Amino acid sequence: MNFALCARSLALSGLLLAPYLVVIPGVAAAPVQNVTVFGQSRLTPIALTGFPTEVASVLRFDLELAGFKITAPDTALYTLTGTLNAGGLEGRLSSRSQTSLLARAYKGANVRSQAHALADDVLFTLTGLKGIAQTKIAFKAELDRTSEVYVADYDGHNAIQVTQDNNLIAAPTWAPGRGLLYYVSYKHDNPDIFYHDLASGKRAVVANYSGLNTSPAISTTGKLAMVLSKGGSPDIYIADLNGANLKQLTFTPEEESSPCWSPDGQWICYAAKVNERRSLMKVSVNGGSAHRIAIDGAINPTEPDWSPDGRFIIFTCQRAEFELCLVPAEGGVATTIITGEDPSWAPNSRNVVFTRRKNGRRYLSLLDVFSKQVKDVAQLSGNCSQPSWAK
Q1: Which of 156, 290, 291, 333 could form a disulfide linkage to 378, CB 3.0–4.6 angstroms apart?
Q2: How many helices (H) does the chain have, and how many strands (E)?
Q3: CA 127 → CA 23, 32, 378, distances in Å?
Q4: How many Å apart are CA 191 and CA 131, to the nearest integer?
Q5: What are the extents of the domains in the chain?
């Protein structure tokens, strides 16, 4: 899509709108399917019948990223049948034995939102897991010689410009609850950290110390981590969400970057550059010595992101090109997944949004870590990078 300035508010654009559903009685409980076993992922075959083209396309996109394979009805374990009329979208899920597992009608919002809601309900019915089809992403979009923060549906549709700095921005990240975005802006001729309230449009400076103010990251407990160089070298600091009660956690001459939080808000993982090589480190929010996360099979790790379930850290490493690698949170052998950079976990600890490069252009893609299925984010023109998935 064209990144022209959109004057509509985020609330009216659909950021806060959702379809509502009507449950149709007479369905059986579905057997829970295990479709997310790391290293042993198997795709669950499902057929789509009766849906118009746009709805079928949305469902295919959502379900394939959730561990399903769209097949013909005669080879499917499940069949999802739908109809669309003036009243909205209706979906019915049945097993191979024709047992009805789900029957719901969706109204309100728009047909894409209704289809996303149906995909999430199918996933929950079959796995007991909450879906991500109705989530949002934020990202940086380059516009000529400037860049701005945008928010979109997770598949790239309904993208809306959030900032109007007419300058350089970087590192947008969500605060829990999806109502606040933090990011770095050069609006005042220095890399400063701002927050932006998506509902009201209010924004304020959080950190504008002399030198670097970069890499904001928000914990589930409502704390801000960031990199400041006000003491000389870039170090890791934490503070309240408004920047108050600043506390320095690292005190080294080395370059430190890209902090991320453990799900319990007690640890920060970050990249440290020592003797021209990078390592992943972690430090307690209570202070003390930092600990190196031992990683085998990855060179120069950076840009870590801790999975919401606490099991893994995904990060960028560099060989001939940038690659996404996965390692257990306690360290160990890294698994190289795909070419790319800037990873950010989805709330489900299964999917990741990241940046890819092709023909001199940067664009966003979505990854199913377990099956390694990849979908490019749609309708985004220009250079898009540094995505953050709302949790």
Answers
A1: 156
A2: 3, 32
A3: 19, 5, 27
A4: 36
A5: 19-127, 137-389
Residues with pLDDT less than 70, the chain: 1-41, 379-380
Residue corresponding to tokens 């999430």: 120
In terms of phi and psi (left: phi > 0; alpha: psi -120 to 50; beta: otherwise), the region of 245 is: left
DSSP of 272-292: EEETTEEEEEEEETT----EE
**What digits encode the pLDDT tens for the residues 200-247?**
999 999 999 999 999 999 999 999 999 999 989 999 999 999 999 999
Task: Tally Cβ neighbours within 10 Å of residue 116.
Answer: 28
Name every residue whose Cβ is closer than 8 Å to that of residue 173 and which is 6 or more positions away in sequence: 138, 181, 182, 183, 216, 217, 218, 388
What are residue 381's phi and psi, to 5 degrees? -95, 170
User: Are β-strands 88-95 and 322-328 bridged in parallel, bridged antiparallel, or unpaired?
Assistant: unpaired
The answer, as to whether pTM is greater than 0.85, is: yes
Tokens of 218: 């928000």
Of 373, 322, 170, the closest CA to residue 258 belongs to 170
Beta bridge partners of 124: none
Tell the CATH topology of 137-389: Neuraminidase (2.120.10)
Nearest to 341 by CA among 358, 311, 318, 369: 318
Looking at domain 19-127, its CATH architecture is: 2-Layer Sandwich (3.30)
